[in-house]
Amino acid sequence: MTTTPVDPGPPVDPVPQEAAQERFDATIARGDRIEPRDWMPDGYRRTLVRQIAQHAHSEIIGMQPEGNWIGRAPSLRRKAILLAKVQDEAGHGLYLYSACETLGVSRAELTELLLAGRQKYSSIFNYPTLSYADVGTIGWLVDGAAICNQVPLCRTSYGPYGRAMIRICKEESFHQRQGYELLMTMMRGTDAQRAMVQESVDRFWWPSLMMFGPPDAESPNSARSMAWGVKRNSNDELRQKFVDMTVPQAEALGVTLPDPDLRWNDERGHYDFGEPDWAEFAQVVGGSGPCNAQRLAHRRAAHEDGAWVREAATAFAERSGKGGQ
Ligand code: BYC
């Protein structure tokens, strides 16, 4: 419960900077992992903290849109599934904050940066959830996009991040399947249920494509992150992979994806698709999306409401001689 940063300690084998840089470069070139006590360039550490923290914040803020429906789930079974899924997101956040702590920054500091608006979280969670179908659509499209983006991150060059991603991806697969199963059940139901699914897919399709980030040509971090093996694929590559994977699933489900330019391109061996509204993306990332203020206000209130739990846990740890554990 205490959020003291884990001190990565001095490098195991202190070496002059130049030799350390060579060793780092060679490790990356071999495709091996950098571990917390290895020397690493400041830029690499900063990039990891930025990306992992954003990812952790996304998991925690991502509990809100679906959490909105826990009290209104249509059956006990659906409620149990949704509860389990939202709890998993909390767990993902914790694995990721822990990975970040190995870089010398505490969860408390990261939470402060999020609440001060100085660190980001995924744009997708700034859209509202207006019907129960959204629980299915988030599972299918949002977790589907998350899997496309995150499976390559299991091979990221920083050990603690890659290991956290392996477990997260296993759970994301369950999330994606529960969403698809919910939507399939609704599509086999009444006309009103089918319309509800289609309306939900219409709202979430484009924001899901935006989860992969700006086009490669406008992605300032990609080149450096890929050279360091932090990212394994570019934003556009993963977006294309997601579209290719999702179109046949939409056909099996019986829903239409809201893109008139979506069609198979035999020559490329991929689906062509339209351009997301990048002005909308910039607005949402910049803090002016439909739910940005609400999400941060809720997170802030939850953090303040939880202060007594942190204090009690810290006092207990100190009294049992486990302070700072
Ligand atoms: N939303 O140079 P770029 C989940 C920012 S959790 C907001 O391409 P990068 C789930 C970007 O940070 C989903 N901001 O950046 C949870 C950068 O700004 P800064 C979260 C975005 O890092 C619960 C600027 O735009 N997944 O799936 O090379 C329930 C320029 O971008 C977004 C992860 O975090 C966005 N969509 O690539 C269900 C995965 N896109 O930082 C599901 C790990 C870009 O320079 N992260 N920005 O101020 C990544 O893979 C990469 O960070 C990204 C962006 C592909 C997202």
UniProtKB/TrEMBL annotation:
Record bears the keyword Oxidoreductase: yes
Any one GO CC term of the record: cytosol
EC number: 1.14.13.149
Keywords: Oxidoreductase
This protein's record includes keyword Ion transport: no
Xref: SUPFAM superfamilies: Ferritin-like
Gene3D superfamilies given in the database record: 1.20.1260.10
PANTHER family per record: 1,2-PHENYLACETYL-COA EPOXIDASE, SUBUNIT A, PHENYLACETIC ACID DEGRADATION PROTEIN PAA
Name used for this protein in its record: 1,2-phenylacetyl-CoA epoxidase subunit A
Originating species: Actinomadura montaniterrae
Name of the gene this protein is made from: paaA
